[in-house]
Specification:
11 strands, five-stranded mixed β-sheet, 5 domains, four-stranded mixed β-sheet, 26 helices, about 55% helix, alpha+beta, about 575 residues, disordered C terminus
Length: about 575
Amino acid sequence: MKLLGQMPKSDMEECKKRARAAGLEFQDNTLEYIVTNQDMLELNPKVMIPTLYDYWVHDLEAHRNRWMYDVFPHNPYETVINTRPPISFYNQDNADWFNVMIFYHVLGHIDFFQNNVFFSKTWDDDFCGSALADRRLINSIRTEFGEEKRWVDYVIEFSRALDNLVGYHQELAEKDRARQPEVFGIFSEKIDYYFGQFLKRLFDEKRLKLEFYHSEIERFNRFVRRFGKKEGETAFFEDNEFRSRFPEFIDVFKKWKKESDRPKPKDILEYLMENSEFFKREKNKGLKDVMQVVRRTSLYFQAQMRDKISNEGWASFWHQKLFMTDERMSTHEIDFAKVDSGVTADPRMGINPYAAGKHLFEFIEELASRGKLSPEYQLLKGIDARKKYDQNRGEAYGRKAVLEARKYLDDYLLVNLLSDEDFQDFVDRHKLFIVGYRPSRERWNAAEVYIKSKNGKEYRKHLNQMLYHPPNIDFNSSKAKSGELYLDHIYEGRSLYARYIKPVLIGLEFLAERPVKLETTEYERIQPKNWWEAQSNPKQKKVRVLYTCEKRKVSRAVLGSETAPPYYES
């Protein structure tokens, strides 16, 4: 591993100038390294973080990577680390012109890291430096434990089993609350609760329509314009119209305020670190630090896992635009086309995040340039009127809109930004489809692949199901008895992996030193009436179950059930 040479470094600096001229924004300091294939094999298990803590699984994955490389030699062209300053690695086998393309790709990543709100807690951290300190800490704890150092790996392994549940959004919300006064002025928590939670809950329960929500915003703005921010807020809640419509609001808000002011762990790992008697014992305090390291590392990687399509799509969007306008590369168009088609091609089956993200950003830019991201367009009714709508706002307006969009989009928001009609147009344009499997008509013991759907809504649903979305598990103190930990899995269409439930609950009980209960939703098959029903339309029921772990024994009880759709629709 060595730093980038003088000539490629000057190319990188020229790429920075051109990227900034096109609208990208990033800090000037960056670090670039040339790495060998061996370096890639060694660093890949540590997600290209050289200073990440040691763990036996990393060594095992490195051995597997060497074996796979011997069978099928391949390695990434580049990797960029979201740290301060950003660090990027380039394969030594890359050609000079190829590195220019990769430079633009990397600068797209860096721009996304430093401007996207979902990276706001990570991009300006020296993660490599803090990872080195964490590595030294864990090594010293291993030394302290001596012959019982296996406990360090036990805690790492258990923590990694739950590190996808870290309170990522809670951490973001905490930072947002800290900067709320400077952004929103002097509006109180009462306003935030009313519009952000109270009305939203009523809307979700279908007790009010979206039009009412918009009218309430306008009514509040009228009070503010008339009386000012502070006095207008007071007058809004004291208005007779509000009191007659929502007489229960003040009591509900006070109850919420009391609950929200009570300290609450952001996730299970934080709960264990704060409440576990196991970690409070003097000899185990070092193990608490180990869990903290795993949690902190997971929080760093959460943004990248949740922004795979948007992040890679943004980088691909820009490397294509900037490379093709770089006159220095005028003789390498064919070479570029070969490589770029391999990176951003739409697969016949599955999803390529590079292609999906790039296509979506290009489509957003096009819609914005035609004025189709405006409220006027969204209020139009009728397919013909929406197709004919074109304000011709120009390429510059579209570019500005897509640069603004990258600040606030993660994978979920990017996929669900467009209306159903526009998304159908997107699917048709790129000839996207969902594949299905069915028994072969030619071979009785085989299956065949077929095009299941070209519908935009179905394809969007398919994309959403493929996004990274860890389970939402919350603490439920109202159901918990004295001395027990009660976890409530908020069902969002995906059940937990049943085979992991028992070992995780046993581990939780051991560390928490109290009985653990987990309430979740599962599917059970309904016994078919005959053979034809079993083959053609198998049915299932959705059941709410309660797992209880006490004295390392796990029991399961059914709380209730309801009919669920057929398997292929769930």
